[in-house]
C-alpha cells in the first residue's frame, strides 16, 4: 500500500522552483532569489536583529521556506528534493540577510547539510564580511541510539521548528548572537522526537516504488527522507501507538536512547508538538493530539502548550511525529532559563504561511462539568396513547431490525449510486432507537413524546442529509399528533396516524425540493402516506415497495444521485438507497395496524 505516485506538476525537474514562486506570490512580504533558490525577507526588515536562517532539501514543506516571516526565519535555502543545497546557494542566503549582529543557521543534522552550511559559514568568516555566522545542528530524533549514532549523531526532525521559533523570538527582543545561539542550543538539548510511517513517500520523477510493509503494519522511527525505521509494528489503536512513542521519548532507563533529562516524578512540564508528515487527515491528527495530551496527563507530565499541524513533512508520507520539549524545572537553579521565559519566546507573535495557529495557553481540561444552561420550557404536555403499547413498540422494533438487516444491501447500493454511507447511517439510527426502547426512553405510553424522542435520536445519531430529513419528518409527525390531541383525540386511530403522516410530509416538503418521481426517499414515502388512509399499513407498504423499486428506472433529480452517471445507474439497475431504506422501514412496520 503505497501513497499516491501521481503528482500535480509541470515537470519534476522544475517542481522546487515552481513551488517557491508560488510561495513568493502567496507571501508578498518575502523575496525570492530564483537563481540560488533562497526565500528571504528584505534586509531592511532584519538589520537590527540576529538573522535566523535554515534550509536543506526540499520536500519537507512547509519547512523551511514557508516559515520565513516575522518572528521566525529571515531566510531559507532550498535544495532539490531530499538533497542539501550547495555552498553557493547557502552563501547567497547568508549574504542577503546577515547584518552587523550576525546570523545563526539552524539546520537538521544530516551529513550534507552539516557540511554545506558549515562550509558556507566558514567562507563568510574567512572573507571578513560583517557579522559572525554560526551553525546549530538540531538533533532531536530518539529513534537512533547513541551507539548507532556515535559518529554522525542523531537526526534532526520536527523539533527544529521549535528551536528556531524560540531563538528568533529572543533575537526580536534584542538578544545578541551569543544569547540567541545559547537558547537554541538549550532547546535543542531538551527535545525528543519520534515518527512513524504507514508507508514510504514517493518522490516526483522517480520510478514507482514497492511496498515494504504489510497492509496491517507501520514502521516506527522512520526518517523524513524515506529512511527505514527501527522496527515494524502491527497497526492497532492509536492510543497504544502514542503510548509506545511517548514512552520512548520520556524513558530514562535506556542509557542508549535516553536523551532528554525527564525526571518522571510529577514535576516535568512540556511543550507537545504533533506533526503531520504529509498525508494524515486532520480528522486523524486531532485524535492523535487528544491521545497524546491524555497520555501525558496520565503520567503526571504537565502539558504547558500544544502545537498540532503540518510543520515538517516527508512529501506525501502517511505518518506523523511527536515531539516533546522539556521545559526548565522550577527546582533547577542551574538552568539559565525559566519555563515562563521559554514559553514567552514560543508564544511570541509570528507571521508566516507555515506557522500554524497556537493558543498560547495550556490545553483545556476534558470532563469538566459544563455550565448549566437554562433550556426553554417544553411545549404544553398532551397525552395521546397508542391503542396497544406493546404492539406499538414491537412495530418500531421490527422496523429498526429490518433496517439493520438491510445495511449490507443499502451500503452496496450507495457505493454505486452515492457516497457509500446510506446503510451505515440508517443502521446507526436504528440501533440508537432500539437502545432507547430498551432503556425506556421510548416507552409507548404517549406517542407525542415518543415521536419527539425519535426526532432527537435520529438527529444526534444519524447525521448527514438522511438524519436531517428523518428528523424533520418525525418533528412534523409529532406536531401533527400534538395538534390532533389538542383537538380532542385520545388514542392513535388509523385516521390519526394517516392525518399526522400527511402533515409530516407537508413539513418535510418545506425543506426539500425533491418531489416524486425524483429517485429519492420521497418517492416511496409519499406513495406510502397517500395510500395509508385507503389501503392501511400493509397495502401502503406494498405501494412504497413498488415506488422504491421504480427508482431503478428513474433519472435522479435531487440528492447525491443527481451527480452520478445516470446511464450507468440505469444499466446497473440500482434503486436509490434512500428510497429502499424507506421501503425496508415500512416493511418492518407491517403486521401492526392501530385499531
From TrEMBL:
Biological role: Catalyzes both the phosphorylation of dihydroxyacetone and of glyceraldehyde.
SMART domains assigned: Dak2
Listed InterPro entries: DhaK_ATP (IPR012734), DhaK_dom (IPR004006), DhaL_dom (IPR004007), DhaL_dom_sf (IPR036117), Dihydroxyacetone_Kinase (IPR050861)
Record-linked PROSITE patterns: DHAK, DHAL
Gene Ontology molecular functions: ATP binding; glycerone kinase activity; triokinase activity
Domain of life: Eukaryota
Residue ranges occupied by any DhaL domain in the UniProt entry: 390-591
GO biological process: anaerobic glycerol catabolic process
Binding site for substrate: 57-60, 113
Similarity section: Belongs to the dihydroxyacetone kinase (DAK) family.
Domain DhaK: 11-355
Identification of the protein by name: Dihydroxyacetone kinase
Reactions it catalyzes: dihydroxyacetone + ATP = dihydroxyacetone phosphate + ADP + H(+); D-glyceraldehyde + ATP = D-glyceraldehyde 3-phosphate + ADP + H(+)
Associated pathway: Polyol metabolism; glycerol fermentation; glycerone phosphate from glycerol (oxidative route): step 2/2
Keyword terms, alphabetized: ATP-binding, Glycerol metabolism, Kinase, Nucleotide-binding, Transferase
Pfam families for this protein: Dak1 (PF02733), Dak2 (PF02734)
GO cellular component: cytosol
Active site residues of this protein: 225
